[in-house]
Amino acid sequence: MEPVLLTLGAFALVTMVVMSGYYALTAESTAARRLDAMTGEPVAAQRTPPRVGLLSRTLAAVGPYAFGSGDASLTQTLSFAGFRGPNATFIFLGARMLVSIGPALMFVIPQISEGKALGQTVLRAVMIWAVLHVLATSVLKRRARRRIGAITRALPDSLDLMVVCLEAGLGLNATIARVGEERATLNDALGEEFRQVSLEMRSGRSREQALRALGARNGSDDLKALAALIIQSDRLGASMAQTLRSHADLLRTKRRQRAEEASRKLPIKMLFPLLLILLALIAVTAGPVVFPLRNLMAIMSRG
Q1: 224: which residues sit within 8 A by CB, 6+ positions away?
Q2: What angle do CA 110, 116, 121 make, to 5 degrees?
Q3: Highest-confidence range of 33-42, 181-190, 219-228, by mean pLDDT?
Q4: Is the pTM of this model over 0.70?
């Protein structure tokens, strides 16, 4: 009876996921329904095709049913990792749920069908789900840390380029746009962020709001400090080129200090791998001598 109930539960869950994706893909928007009511004819043929792919929309439909859909820190981590948009959180949650629950169900159903013990099977399935759930979250956090590190390392060089543009006669807005264009061609995360700031200022957002949003959505402390420094210098009327040059020297010093700190941590990190390697070398070197010595000791004890 229990295998039948478990199989029916898995079937109901998969059916719910498929139906949610179907309704999300086929549902009309509120604007389309209003136009239908006003014109008396459907406007589906006049709508442009959606930019979001089928897989992304399916994952976004599954996302609200996943665990942790209301976690604000997850949205912040996604922003730090470069995944932004109205459905970014739901897409990640849907992908994580499918990646974690799918293999667990694929393990449970054959085991139950073969008549294995229910408790042990469910425990193993929960362990599979937990490991994959934590692994997906860890991959996201690792990507966020790597992106923050890349932005922090690229900041001094970008400030040098900004100083050159300012001394050449460009304004601050034009400088940010120029640096964003130059760095974005290198597939650089900081260049993409500067270009985003330029687009926000062109769309009517104030420079202070755009710079504060730049620091808030990336998680880099150096970038937050830079945004605050530019805002303060702009308010006081200080020389922006001289301010950015001094800040670039400070960030370059901090980057060198971080490199020195990482190099000093390296011997400690290498200790345990070297210990394992030395133990293996000792076993390989002294192993052939152990057996003759054991036989010799046995002969001497009998004598």
Answers
A1: 215, 216
A2: 75
A3: 219-228
A4: no
